Amino acid sequence: MHLAATLSVVAFAVMPLQGHAQSAAPEPPEVAARAYLLLDVTANQILASRDIDMPVEPASMTKLMTAYLVFDALKSKKIDMKQTMGVSERASKMPGSRMFIDPKMKVPVEDLIKGMIVQSGNDATVALAEGVGGSVDRFVQMMNDQAKVLGMQNTTYKNPDGFAEAGHSTTARDLATLATRLMRDFPDYTGIYAIKKYRYPGTPAANDSNRNLLIFKDPTVDGLQAGHTEASAYSLVASAKREFHIVGTRRLLAVVLGANSEITRANEAQKLLNWGYTAFEAVKLFEPGQAVATPVIWKGKASNVKLGRSDALVVAVPKGSAAQIKTQLVRPDPLVAPVTRGQTIGSLKIYRGEQFWVDMPLQALDTVEQAGVLGRAWDAVRLWIK
Fold it and tell me: N or C: which end of the chain has fewer CB within 10 A?
């Protein structure tokens, strides 16, 4: 008798339909941009999109990756906010948006970060790249290495500031991936993106406003980065968080690429965010760390393993359709040790009535080590006759 691993499918946690008709997915608004993406960060679902894998120049949105590496250096204590960095001739002579620093200055890291984020300062960006990477070339290599780690498959960096250069390219999908990880991995630092005005002492007062106009218009918007080049036109990565009953904080992210003006990119991002919050509702299915299922595991020191998510399992569905949700667990069967905490094992498929909606990966909530020789042998016999 030969035992082959199969997929176990278990339907459970069904919410009654209560006579509701199946509703179609909401139609997104018209967006005046070449490409766009609206992501429900809380549910990790794309709510609307167009041409999200089209190559574009990232412009100053390049600075999101520069910030990621700077924040990582802060978190790992390779640098700290109060230490000062020198300003090279190269940094001081950067064209475009500037913080207006010069080689005579020693500037605290905290101020350089604010100069890069709030003022979109190319001089501050290069100073940080040189301070963290040792050189701009080395820092650019770090940017590309990190892009691969984050799964940004269609992004290549040629510089840390965003100036147009052959091969310097990204996509709406990759920008959403980067922005989401930036907020998730460095919550202690991303509040800087919500600062409306900043300038370094002794620099021009007229250069103090955040380039993201949405943070002046919508109090729920707290980031992130605007960008502009002649070829890419006007673009924006905008994040917002709003409070809702039961679910709590719900975060959406809008990526708008190739609008015709600074005002248009802000308006179109605002349109997407408002539509996402009103057309969809978030439903919390499981709390963080709550077991979705506890299947039997073979050849392990424990007899069961809990499957779930470290964060809350939230799904975004068209408003009014929460009562239609059905869930179906799909996992390998049999499950055989060892299993490591955080290892992806199967998924929870979400349906609206009979229509498949989204697939939510599940992870092991505990580590289950392999049993000893006798335990594994006994389970091997039991599996053989199962």
Answer: N
What's the rounded Cα separation, in Å, for the pair 249 and 239?
A: 13
* CB-CB contact of 126 with 107 (8 Å): no
Residue 27, exposed/middle/buried by CB under 10 A (0-12, 13-18, 19+)? exposed
61 in Cβ contact with 162 (< 8 Å) = yes
Tokens of residue 163, six digits: 């100036």
The residues facing 11 across adjacent strands are 328
Contacts of 16 (CB under 8 A, 6+ apart): 323
Q: How far is CA 234 from CA 211, 230, 258, in A?
A: 11, 8, 5
Q: Where are the beta strands (DSSP E) in 74-117?
A: 84-86, 106-108
Helix (H) or strand (E) holding 277, with range, is helix 262-279
What lies within 8 Å, CB to CB, of 356 at 6+ separation is: 349, 350
Helix, strand, or coil here: 47? strand
Residue 236's contacts (CB-CB under 8 Å, 6 or more residues apart) are: 212, 214, 225, 226, 227, 254, 255, 256, 259, 265, 266, 269
pLDDT tens-place string over residues 265-279: 999 999 999 999 999
Q: Each residue of 80-103: pLDDT tens digit?
A: 999 999 999 999 999 999 999 999
Q: Are strands 84-86 and 355-364 parallel, antiparallel or unpaired?
A: unpaired
The torsion angles phi and psi of 282, rounded to 5 degrees, stand at -100, 135
At 333 the pLDDT is 85
3-state secondary structure of 96: coil
**Terminal CA-CA length for the chain:** 10
Domains and CATH numbers, the chain: 6-20+286-385 (2.60.410.10), 35-259 (3.40.710.10)
